[in-house]
Design a protein that fits this description.
Layout (H helix, E strand, L loop, with lengths): L12 H4 L4 H32 L3 H27 L27 H22 L5 H28 L3 H14 L13 H8 L7 H18 L12
Helix pairs in contact: 2-3, 3-5, 4-5, 4-6, 4-8
The protein binds fe (ii) ion (FE2) (2 copies).
The site of one fe (ii) ion has 5 residues, from α3.
Length: 239
């Protein structure tokens, strides 16, 4: 008999062990990817940004963002451990699975960090929204817990970018950071016609294609930038 997609959700980690191997491996892939990327992002962006934050208030909020991003890693990693995934497969640098290229941006300024939160965390909101419908319930619950925090991060980016845009010099610096960072973001949504994504959708682990997610992201990113009087560089080629 060939494996058929799950009609009913998988409720627990124990139940997952009874699920077809393709389903199990697909869930593991998502958990590993989130564990790696949340940790890597916290290490290269959020923690270093505490130093860049210009005021005690900004440092305080940046500490909270960093704490939450490390917390996301911890949550995904704990779920991974419950699934029997070895810890080293969930730590960047210890496994051959690479962190996403959106983290290759060489963060140097507070303005850049605010733009990263504005745009990359908007992308993360889309991912978490999709996983909040996941057929594997522990992952669905974890995504629902993570959602308000990712919303806070994007809102943090929006508020500080709004503040920076109050002066013409600040607005130009924000626009410049958008121009340099935004072209990295389509890569966050994976390749078009992705085999992995097809498997995720077959099993109801994810709901939407990479193409649909990216398209939605571009619309939402444009709306956010319009509000701030910013423009987005054309990424149709990068996409
Ligand atoms: Fe996160
Ligand atoms: Fe975040």
């Amino acid at each position: 008999m060939t494996a058929s997609p799950h009609a009913a959700p998988v409720k627990t980690c124990a139940e997952l062990q009874q699920a077809p191997a393709e389903y199990r491996h697909a869930v593991e892939k998502i958990v590993i990817s989130h564990a790696i990327n949340e940790l890597h992002g916290a290490q290269v962006f959020d923690e270093p940004a505490i130093k860049l934050a210009p005021t005690p208030y900004a440092k305080w909020l940046t500490c909270r963002v960093a704490m939450e991003e490390y917390g996301h890693h911890v949550r995904f990693r704990e779920l991974g451990e419950e699934l029997g995934i070895p810890a080293e497969r969930m730590i960047p640098g210890k496994t051959d699975k690479k962190a996403l290229s959106i983290f290759d941006f060489p963060l140097q300024t507070w303005t850049e960090f605010c733009v990263i939160k504005l745009l990359a965390d908007l992308g993360e909101i889309l991912q978490v929204e999709d996983l909040a419908q996941c057929s594997f319930l522990p992952l669905r619950n974890l995504s629902r817990m993570t959602m308000p925090e990712e919303r806070f991060h994007a809102e943090f980016g929006r508020e500080f970018c709004t503040e920076l845009c109050q002066t013409e010099q600040g607005r130009q610096a924000v626009q410049d950071a958008v121009n340099r960072y935004f072209p990295m973001l389509p890569g966050f949504f994976g390749k078009a016609r992705s085999k992995n994504n097809e498997t995720f959708r077959k099993w109801g682990i994810k709901q939407r294609t990479n193409e649909a997610m990216l398209e939605d992201f571009l619309v939402r990113a444009k709306a956010v930038c319009d509000e701030l009087g910013l423009t987005l560089p054309d990424v149709s080629k990068a996409a």
